[in-house]
Automatic annotation (TrEMBL):
Gene Ontology cellular-component terms listed: cytoplasm
EC number: 1.8.4.12
Organism (species): Candidatus Zambryskibacteria bacterium CG11_big_fil_rev_8_21_14_0_20_40_24
Enzyme class: oxidoreductase
Catalytic activities: L-methionyl-[protein] + [thioredoxin]-disulfide + H2O = L-methionyl-(R)-S-oxide-[protein] + [thioredoxin]-dithiol
Biological process, per Gene Ontology: protein repair; response to oxidative stress
Protein name: peptide-methionine (R)-S-oxide reductase
Residue ranges annotated for the MsrB domain, each copy included: 9-131
Length: 136
């Protein structure tokens, strides 16, 4: 099977929209309250918009009021955390474990009844694979 993952930034630039490239590959941030998944409550799995890897379950999504989609946990081994000291701040950057694209940041101000984490993720970095909830 041929590897279809872009091998350099020029290939990423060809594959992604200009906004997605700016955020996913250059670490920019979309404007708050502008993303298509900020207020979505559909069931499913959120995948990396760059490579398609599964990142977050809709079961972990919550309304943080921050203006970006927020999750209290990532799927196992789906993301990596890196220190980010840009913009005069000390933060923890969230990247896709598979393609190493920037997704957002994680903070320790999430729901205390779960993980206490708030994965603050840019909508442009996500694709929702919707699933109908099974009725019991």
């Amino acid at each position: 099977m041929k590897n279809t993952m872009p091998q350099n930034e020029n290939e990423w630039k060809e594959k992604l929209s200009p906004e997605a490239f700016e955020v996913l590959r250059l670490g920019k941030t979309e404007a708050p309250h502008s993303g298509k998944y900020t207020y979505v409550k559909d069931d499913g799995v959120y995948r990396c918009a760059a490579c398609g890897a599964q990142l977050f379950s809709s079961d972990t999504k919550f309304d943080s009021g921050s203006g970006w989609p927020s999750f209290d946990d990532a799927l196992p081994e789906a993301v990596e955390i890196r220190e980010d000291n840009s913009h005069g701040m000390r933060r923890s950057e969230v990247i896709c474990a598979q393609c190493k694209s920037h997704l957002g940041h994680v903070f320790d101000d999430g729901p205390k009844e779960t993980t206490g984490k708030r994965y603050c993720i840019n909508s442009v970095c996500l694709d929702l694979e919707s699933q109908e909830k099974k009725k019991k």
